[in-house]
UniProtKB/TrEMBL annotation:
Belongs to the monovalent cation:proton antiporter 2 (CPA2) transporter (TC 2.A.37) family. Signal peptide: none annotated. Gene3D superfamilies: 1.20.1530.20, Regulator of K+ conductance, C-terminal domain. The chain crosses the membrane at residues 6-24, 31-50, 62-83, 104-129, 135-155, 167-191, 197-217, 238-270, 282-300, 312-337, 343-363, 375-396. The keyword Cell inner membrane does not apply. Its main location: membrane. This is Monovalent cation:proton antiporter family protein. Residues 536-618 form the RCK C-terminal domain. Coiled coil: none annotated. It is found in: Membrane.
Amino acid sequence: MEHGPSVVSLAIVVLAALLTPILISRLKVSFLPVVVAEIIVGVIIGDSFFDIVDGNDPWLKILSTLGFIFLMFLSGLEIDFDAFTQKSGSQKKSKILKRPLPNILVLTMGIFSAMLGLSLLFALLMRGFGIFDDVFLLVIIISTISLGVVVPTLKEANLISTRMGQIILLIAVIADLTTMIMLALYSQLYADASKPLWLMGILVAFAILFYFLGRVMNGSEFIKSLNNGTMQIGMRGVFALIIMLVALAEGVGAENILGAFIAGCIVSLLKPDQDIVHKLDSFGYGFFIPIFFIMVGVELNLPALFSDSRVFVLIPVLLFAFLFSKLIPVAFLLRYFDLKRVTAAGFLLTSTLSLIIAAAVIAEQIGMITNSESGMFILSAVIACIITPVVFKQLYPEGENEDRVINVTIFGNNQLTVPVAHSIAGGLYNVRLIFHKNFSDSRERNTENLSFQEIPEYSEEALDAVDAFDSDIVVVGANAADINRRVAEMAKNRGVERIIYRVEDPTREQAIKEHGYEPFSALLSSKTLLRGLIESPHMMDLLTDEETAIYEIQMNNYRYDEMILRDFPFTADIIFLRIMRGQESIVPHGDTRLQVDDRIFMTGSREYVEELKRELELY
C-alpha cells in the first residue's frame, strides 16, 4: 500500500514550536525575541547540526508558506493608521521634554526620509567597494524596521503610549509600510517581465473595493448576528480576504505576500474588535508563523555559509549600516529628549527581521541572490534582533510615567456633569467640559486641570475644530438623548477607547452595551443608592469618603505581570478587595499572581490610588 508524505518532520517542527517559548521562560532569557529563538532552534534541528528535519517535506513547505503569508498579514494589521492623523496639540509641561514637540507625523516622516537617504548612501558605498552589487535590494534591507520586534519591546518596557514610544512606533510604521511597497516593486521589476507593471492597479482597485465592502459588512446588524458560536463570520471574512488578495497578487505577477500585507492593512483600517485581533494573533503566532521561522532556521546551513569568506565582510558591514542609518537621523531628537533616550531609540529602530527574511527569500526565488547571500542577510537580521532590544532596555531610563495624565472630555453642561468635572479634575485627571452655548448660561472659570469650552453646535466640523475626541475617556452627558447618540457615534468613529454614555431609557441600556459604550443613568443610579441606603445605612459613607472609596484599576504594566501580591511594592496605603480576570472573580491573597488585563478593585487614599493608576494603567 502506498503512503502519502510522512508527517514525522512536521511532528518534530510542531514539537519544537511548542517547547521553544517554554525553554525561553524557564531559562529566563526574556531578552531574546521568540521568533529569533525559533530560528535558532530551526538551525539546531536542521541542516546545520542534527539534520532531523526534511526541508523538502511537502507538509512543511505548504505550512511554512502559509506562515509567511500570515506573518505579512499580521504586519499589515499591526499598522495603526490613526497615527498618521494625530495632531501634536497642546502639551503639558514635562520633566522629560526639553521643548514642545512639533507635529509628530512631520517629525517622524522627516527622520525616516533621512534613514532612507543614508541607506542609499551605504548601499552605493557597498557596491563601490565590491561588497554587494544590488543597490535596490540593499536599500530595502538596510532601511526596514521590524514592527514585530519594536511593538513587543515597547509594550514590555511600558513605553508604547509615551511621547518617545509614539515617535519610535510611528517611525517603525512608516518604515514597514514604505519598505513593503519597495519590496513589492522590486519583485515586480525582476520576477516576471511578462506581467506589465500597470496590472498592479487591478490589485489596488480590488483592495479599495474590499475595504468599502468591509465597511458595509461592519455596519450590518445581520452580519453581526452571525459572529457567534460556530459561524464566526468575522474570522471567515478575514481569511477569505487574505486568500482572495493573495490569489489576485499572484495573478497580476506580484508576490503573494503583498496581497497578504494589503489584506492586513484593510483589516486595520476597518478597526476590528480586539477579540478578533486576539484570535488572529493566537492563530498566527500559535501555529503557522512558528513553523515558518523554524523552517527559516532549518534551511540556514551555517557550515556552508561560513565557508564563504564574504560572510566575514558582509555581515559586519550590514550591522554597521543597520545601526548608523538609524542612529544618525534619530540624533535630531536630541533637541527634545536626553542623550540616553535618543540613543536607546536608535538601537531599537535597528531591530529588523521579518521583512529582511521576506526580501532574502524573494530575491533568492527570483534568482537575484544566491542561497549563501540569502543566509547572510537572514543571519545579520537575527544578530541585530538579539543585540538591539537588550541595549535598548539597558539604556532607556525608568520613571517615564511620572507626569502622565488621563484626558477626560465631558459633553454637556448641567447639574450632573459640572460637579463631577470639578470633583475629578486635578492630579491624574485633566478634564475638559464641552457644551453648546444655547443649552447653558453657565460661565465657569477655567483652571489648570479643568476647562470649559463653548461650541456653536454639536456637528463633526465644530467638534473636530476643537479636537474634542483627542481624549482617553469621553463622557456624553448632555440632557438631550439625540445629542448623546450623535456624539457617541462620532467618538467611536474617531477611535476613542472608552465612551461613557448617559441613557435614561432603561430599555436602551442593553443596546448601548452592545455598541461598546459604558451606560450610566442618573435615575437608575438614584434608585440603586436609595435601595442601598435602606438596606445598608452606612453604604453612602463608603462610596463618598475619599479615604474609603472603592476604585478600579486595569493592570496594563507588563513589569508586574505574574508578580505575586506579597511582592507587589505598592501595598502600603491600599487594600486589594477583588480581582476580575475575564469572567472570573478572584479573592486576592498573598500568593495571588497579577496578570496583564486584570481589573483590580481596591480601597485607599485617592492620591495613592492615582499614583498607582499611573503605574499600572499606563495611559
